[in-house]
Amino acid sequence: MIAKNAPLLSVSGLSKVYPPAVQALRDCEFTLAEGEIHGVIGANGAGKSTLIKILAGVETPTSGTISLAGFGDVTISSPADAHRYGIGVVHQELPLFENLTVADNLLVGVEGQGLCRVTARRRTTATYDRIAEGFPGAPDSRRLLGELTIDKRQIVSIIRALACGARILILDEATSSLPAAERASLHDNLHRVAASGIGIVYVSHFIEDVMSVCDRVSVIRDGGNVASKPMDETASSRELIEDMTGQPIVVRDVATTASHGLADQPVAVSLRGFATDQVQPLDFDVLRGECVGLYGLEGCGAREVLHGAFGLERHSGDVVVNGETVSGGTVRRMRAGLAMVSGDRRRTLITEDTVRANIDLPAFAHQNLSRPAKSNDQVAAITMKQFAVLGQLHQKLNTLSGGNQQKLALGRWLHPLPVCLLADEPTRGIDVNGRAAIHHYLRQLLADGLSILLNSTDPEELVALGDRVLILADGTQIDELGYGQVTVSEIERSTRTRDANAPTVVAS
Predict the structure, then answer these.
(1) How far apart are CA 345 and CA 454, in angstroms?
(2) Phi and psi angles of residue 486, each rounded to the nearest 5 degrees, phi first
(3) CA distance 263 to 257
(4) Where are the beta strands (DSSP E) in 338-429?
(5) Smaller CB count within 10 Å for the chain: N or C?
(6) Which residues pair with 230 in a beta bridge?
(7) Exposure class string for 445-468: b at 16+ Cβ within 10 A, else e
(8) Over its length of 508 residues, how does the chain's per-residue pLDDT go in tens digits?
(9) Measured between alpha carbons, how far is residue 386 from residues 190, 266, 428 in Å?
(10) Among 266, 281, 389, 435, CA closest to 337
(11) What pTM, to 2 d.p., does this model score?
(12) Cα(413)–Cα(472) distance, integer angstroms
């Protein structure tokens, strides 16, 4: 554990409000000492990314102060300001150029041509080689970046930041795509960097990584700090997850489908050996009246599962609806009983057209294509009434509120009632009242026998609707939360621990 060194960075009362009134960060307090590796964790939307963007000069705070050793209170208005103050950021998606050498990547952004650039290249290469001596396994400066593995590129990114004079190094999910051996090697290198007096902010989704490498950890929830403590005072990953979620981890319920009341229901949809370019083969069923949720971190593959099942993306394996294998495009799958609602209204609704025209679109798939498609005012009026859409049939869709548009996006699929609704972030971008209304309608539809396959990045939405939740990572299913197990803390535990299938620690 490090000694109590002088602070390099102090953040006080930092807040960020996005118009009209989205509070992304709320009175955040944060301190980074010389030679400290300080972990920052939090659930999706907690405020981690906003804090990083402010420190990197990408966003400006609404209020609060940032103080840096040697500079006092500072304003970081741009990435150039951050660079000048000695703040370097290593992102998950590395901003490097594969067709350049390691040395040339360090030169990107350096002005000057001719002799000046030759001199800059020699100086930068010498700096890289000097710093690389402290990084076992660092690639030679003459290697093409495209020849390097992801862990070697991470080393290049860190050395690049240090070569530019960084006193504060921010790692934003830098280990998310690394296997265990490479993560351990990177952690060893970070300890060497910290031993030189450089402060490191280590942001990660994965609790074990934070506990393995960090001296201190801060937990952010709902935009504010809820805990900040030395790692040797942190008893377990359970404690951190409970701080993240604000809920205790409970014993996993061993409830079965029988106790849940769905055991006798037939299978509505099956995916067998289902795979896309981003998704490894999956096998699971969705029963009649059941909601199965898909959850994971960015790039987990959940959206691709829904797109593939609906025929929007190529896939291998089988999609089986009511015992019949379906194939072909979206129209065939709609006729087989699949429907899809998305929170991306700009892609799924024709906002410049009328309410009635948007309601009519899914119904055309069920009509005889040899006869002209006709609009059905009665069905449209029923949809408007059933989902309490405030508007008129001949009104332009873009004049409705986001919540009313989303209710319409859902309701237009339900006459006739499909077998299974593929719901992709169905409440994204709408207010709390609209969200509650859509959840109410979806629960009614489940009671009526509709099945739902739900992709949501909001654990609370999965708790509100899901009977079971499949946890995905990098296109692979890593866990399943069964009946009675779907809680926010269990979802976070399964997602943010590398060994997701390890037994849950029981909260006392």
Answers:
(1) 17
(2) -80, 95
(3) 5
(4) 338-342, 420-424
(5) C
(6) 216
(7) bbeeebbbbbbbbbbebbbbbbbb
(8) 444 578 899 999 999 998 877 788 999 999 999 999 999 988 767 888 889 999 999 999 999 999 999 999 999 999 889 989 999 988 766 667 888 888 888 776 544 444 455 676 777 788 888 888 888 778 888 888 888 877 788 888 888 888 888 899 999 877 766 666 677 888 888 998 999 999 999 998 778 788 889 999 999 988 888 888 898 887 677 788 888 878 776 544 434 444 456 778 999 999 999 999 999 999 999 999 999 999 988 778 999 999 999 999 999 999 999 999 999 998 899 999 999 988 776 677 787 788 888 787 776 666 655 444 445 677 778 778 877 777 788 888 878 777 788 888 888 887 778 999 999 988 876 766 677 788 888 898 899 999 999 999 888 889 889 999 999 998 999 999 988 888 888 888 888 775 544 444 433 2
(9) 58, 27, 21
(10) 266
(11) 0.63
(12) 27
For residue 309, what are its two tokens? Answer: 């099942």
Helical ranges in 164-252 per DSSP H: 180-195, 207-213, 237-245
Tokens 């040395």, located at residue: 103
CA atoms within 13 A on the CB side of 376: 18
Contacts of 261 by beta carbon, 8 Å cutoff, 6+ apart: none
